[in-house]
Design brief:
The structure holds 2 protein chains of 2 kinds. By secondary structure, chain A is an alpha+beta fold. Chain A has 3 helices and 6 strands, in the order ααββαββββ. In chain A, 31% of the residues are buried. Chain B contains 11 helices and 20 strands. The chains are: A alpha+beta, B alpha+beta. At the A-B interface, β1, β2 and α3 of A face β12, α9 and α10 of B.
Chain lengths: 153, 404
């Protein structure tokens, strides 16, 4: 049975919610066994696409597991997502999903500011009856990210 | 024992070079003087040669508040100019990079060639009465020095010659950067809420590695980490003895035994600090150039590049990029920690809650010695004509008390 738009939308939004909550186990449960994650940005100075994070599932798990060991930017992130396109791929049944992403950071004093703008480019697969993320590429428009972030976007 | 207000604000019972006044980070007058006497008077890393690979390629950068354009000339050299029109000061070249044989100012169409000559003024006869012609209206050229693919500029025409200024400071980079052609694959900038010197200090003292989860495990767990020694060159450039880092001690980092850059052994780490604000770090397989531009006393634009070997396979490049991103870049494990730390320092210094920074560790020039920090502020004091321990005492019409 093909994936429905509702199933796909729920997956994308839930992935953002889990990351906002830092429910990393929950996030990884949404990911396929061959999941890949990238953050990219275009450098106008170099005229090149840059890769700022490139992880397979195991690498993502290691990174998320170690986050509590790091000294981090205090506060929290909120990801505002809008699913723009869901494009079934005839070749393999995957669905290519394009969403806009705004990340808002709220500091410990309660001040919020726009942290990053970009797009999620996701490939979604059907696995054991439920949709899963096969890959996520975060294409960032924002390149100045303050201190940076230990938590993937 | 805690301290009273008097004790807290009293001059530390240390040698003059073992502490600095926090006003070196916060005072607007000091900041302006630094821009003039240090930033605009010394050699500054501008960009890497791979950013202008072919003739007439240009790059625009900013240095000490001045817009700068660098260009690969028709003959293959590099020239640099203040990127400001001789007519009414508009920025002439506005793109961060490109290729052009001429630059035309958008405002009134004065046009320049890549030698900095003014080659066109619309209706130039209108200036004849004033005795002004394009021959005398070229761009202001800036001195350029190139070493190991790194392009440096100097706004001071009378400053130290390039080779004399850096001396042998690049000696441990000759094999790494001089054997194969390198290219930049990563460039990011970020504004941090801290003084530019606080940022550079993170590369001049090594015991802040306690801050970094990765470095505690891969570096500080080795005796070799503590036995390294600082070497300080004339004009206050510095290096540490190279060491092997044990990446495999953190699950997920892998090893760095293969694809090492020329001259580097598996896991080898090298660092070179160049006065006043540039650091080159090698982590076995990948190299970073870190520099900054001071925006205000408490804001700094940090600019970081990652470099790999030009022409390498896509597979090798991706591995190198992954190694870079494990530590560096906006999503690296180390960079955010450094920023959080220096911003915490700035917050305390901002209004004088903290009066002094202590640089009094002595350890026979070993890695935990503050020797390079002390040398930096000695050099700083000479350029500034005032001691870093009490820099406001000599400002005209001001006293320490008035400026706290």
């Amino acid at each position: 049975m093909p994936l429905t738009d509702n199933q796909i939308g729920a997956l994308i939004y839930r992935s953002g919610l889990f990351m906002d909550e830092e429910n990393f186990d929950g996030f990884m449960q949404l990911c396929a066994s061959d999941f890949r994650y990238q953050i990219t940005a275009y450098s106008p100075e170099l005229g090149k696409e840059m890769i700022w994070l490139n992880l397979d599932r195991e690498g993502m798990e290691h990174l998320l597991k170690n986050i509590p060991n790091h000294v981090r930017l205090p506060g929290s992130f909120l990801r505002n997502l809008n699913v723009y396109l869901m494009e079934p791929q005839q070749a393999n049944g995957d669905v290519h999903v394009t969403s806009s992403l705004l990340v808002i950071h709220t500091d410990l004093e309660g001040a919020s500011r726009l942290y990053a703008a970009g797009m999620y480019i996701d490939d979604v697969v059907l696995s054991s009856g439920s949709p899963q993320l096969k890959s996520r590429t975060v294409k960032l428009a924002t390149r100045q990210l303050g201190p940076g972030s230990h938590v993937p976007l | 024992m805690s301290r009273s207000a008097h004790e807290w604000t009293a001059r530390p019972r240390l040698q003059d070079d073992e502490f600095v006044s926090s006003t070196v980070y916060t005072h607007p007058g000091i900041f302006e003087l630094e821009q003039e006497r240090i930033k605009r008077a010394t050699w500054k890393f501008a960009c890497h040669e791979s950013e202008l690979p072919t003739r007439f390629d240009f790059r625009t950068v900013e240095h000490a508040g001045y817009p700068i354009v660098l260009v690969r000339t028709e003959e293959g050299g590099i020239r640099a100019f203040i990127n400001s029109c001789s007519h009414r000061a508009a920025t002439v070249v506005r793109a961060p990079r490109g290729n052009a044989e001429q630059w035309r100012c958008l405002f009134h169409a004065w046009t320049y060639d890549t030698r900095g000559r003014c080659i066109a003024m619309p209706r130039a006869s209108g200036y004849e009465q004033a005795g002004l012609c394009k021959d005398g209206m070229g761009l202001r050229e800036v001195k350029v020095g190139i070493k190991l693919g790194m392009i440096f500029i100097n706004l001071n025409d009378e400053g130290s010659p390039f080779d004399e200024y850096f001396g042998d400071a690049f000696e441990i980079l000759e094999d790494v950067m001089g054997t194969k052609e390198l290219e930049v694959f990563h460039l990011h900038k970020t504004v941090i809420n801290a003084n530019w010197k606080q940022w550079f200090e993170t590369n001049m003292e090594i015991y802040h590695e306690y801050l970094h989860f990765l470095n505690r495990n891969i570096a500080m767990s080795n005796d070799e980490f503590y036995e390294r020694r600082w070497k300080i060159y004339p004009n206050c450039h510095g290096t540490l003895t190279p060491m092997k880092q044990r990446y495999e001690r953190v699950k997920g980092l892998g090893r760095r035994d293969e694809r090492t850059l020329p001259g580097l052994t598996p896991g080898e780490f090298r660092v070179v600090d160049l006065f006043p604000d540039t650091t080159i770090l090698c982590r076995a397989t990948v190299l970073r150039i870190d520099t900054s531009n001071a925006i205000s006393p408490n804001q700094t634009l940090v600019e970081q590049r990652g470099l790999g070997i030009k022409g390498e396979s896509a597979e090798d490049r991706l591995i190198r990029i992954n190694h870079h991103n494990q530590f560096w870049g906006p999503f690296g494990r180390n960079l955010p920690e450094d920023v959080v730390a220096v911003e915490a320092v700035e917050k305390s210094n901002r209004c004088g809650a903290s009066r002094y920074g202590i640089m009094a560790r002595h350890d026979e020039m070993k890695s935990l010695d503050d020797a390079l920090m002390r040398a930096f502020y000695k050099e700083w004091s000479e350029y500034m004509g005032r001691p870093a321990s009490n820099p406001l005492g000599a400002l005209p019409g001001e006293t320490n008390a008035a400026n706290r």
